[in-house]
Amino acid sequence: MFDRLEISVLPPGPRFSAQVRFWVNGEDVVEEAVGHGGRGPYAAEALPAGRPSPLRATGEARRLELGEPDCTGGCCGFLTVVVQRFGEIVQWSDWEVPWPAHTAVPHPPPELHFDAGQYDAEVARAEGDRWWRVYL
Question: Is the dihedral of CA 66, 69, 75, 77 positive or negative?
Answer without folding.
Answer: negative
